[in-house]
Specification:
A hairpin with a 5-residue loop joins β5 and β6. About 30% of the residues lie in helices and about 15% in strands. The chain starts with a helix and ends with a helix. It has one domain. The chain has about 300 residues and is an alpha+beta fold.
């Protein structure tokens, strides 16, 4: 076994020990194939009001501009599929938001992994990324052999489905690189496209972000356009429709992360509870949650918009 192979094996073993679902490694190079796709996506205005998507174009395509001397991109996945879900008569939260904010939970694990690498190998420099910097995470995960990008643009793993977070550790250490995932196992299935309430899923694995319910309920700061009245399908924060209908998610298994357990009583809240939500209750229920991103005012806006359904 070469030194690179030994180091790579160690990293994957430690990632598994820390609870990561998958771990793959790719060489830190320019994402040549992604450049024209990203440029075309931005040109079409699919980013909506997410103006930050147009920033740092070069950094999104080349991790060496994010981390000096970067040699390897370690891609990791972390399961968030819950054991229990909300009661049926409720406004809906995306499953990833049931527990504590994943950004902090996973970043702490990445920092621990980087420390373990330093302890075992010597001084290795790098940065941890959890959906918080210009990193094309799905492209890197595919290149690292973790899975393929489905028609809904989310990464899918054959034995796990798609209910997982992606994260990256970009380091200045050469490693043994995994083969890119080459096969698209979606085939002729169009369930996600057919089920999307706002028709945000376009051909060629493209999402019109400006139509996505997750964008409308989280990213959009202005009023939700009236053209989406009756189309939010009771989603008040995020949306899981495309994942819920995906056949591959029959393989999803409940996560084992205590910090992702829902706040007590959250799953039992019905529509009336949400309609009567106060700032105090919001602060208590979502104290360490990703839902804080939309703030009480934003969640209230979403609920009120849903309530105005035409008859």
């Amino acid at each position: 076994m070469t030194q690179k192979q030994r180091y790579s094996q160690f990293i994957k073993e430690q990632a598994t020990r820390l609870g990561f679902l998958g771990c793959g490694i790719a060489e830190a190079t320019f994402l040549e194939a992604e450049a024209p796709r990203l440029e075309a996506w931005l040109k079409e205005g699919y980013q909506g009001e997410m103006h930050y998507m147009a920033n740092h174009f070069d950094k999104r395509l080349d991790p060496r501009l994010l981390v000096d001397g970067a040699k390897s991109v370690i891609s990791l996945s972390y399961n968030y599929f819950p054991e229990q879900q909300q009661v049926s008569e409720s406004y809906k939260l995306s499953k990833y938001a049931y527990g504590q904010d994943y950004h902090f939970v996973i970043k702490e694990k990445l920092r621990e992994l980087l420390q373990l690498i330093n302890d075992e190998i010597g001084e290795v420099s790098g940065r941890c990324f959890v959906d918080s910097a210009p990193v094309l995470e799905r492209a890197w995960a595919e290149r690292a052999g973790l899975g393929w990008n489905g028609k809904h643009s989310l990464l899918i793993q054959k034995q796990q489905g798609s209910f997982f977070f992606l994260a990256e550790l970009i380091i200045d250490l050469e490693l043994e690189y995994d083969a890119p995932f080459q096969t698209d196992h979606c085939g002729k299935c169009t369930r996600c496209i057919d089920a999307c309430p706002t028709q945000a899923i376009l051909p060629n694995n493209t999402i019109d972000g400006s139509k996505c319910i997750s964008y409308l309920t989280i990213e959009l700061r202005d009023a939700i356009p009236t053209g989406f009245q009756d189309k939010l399908d009771d989603w008040m924060f995020g949306c899981d429709v495309c994942q819920d209908v995906c056949p591959w998610n029959r393989f999803s298994k409940p996560h084992q992360e205590p910090l992702f357990q829902p706040q007590e009583g959250l799953l039992e809240m019905d529509k009336r509870d949400w309609q009567e939500l106060t700032q105090e209750t919001f602060s208590k229920v979502f104290k360490k949650s990703a839902v804080k991103r939309t703030k009480f005012a934003g969640l209230s806006r979403n609920i009120q918009f849903i309530q105005k359904k035409t008859t």
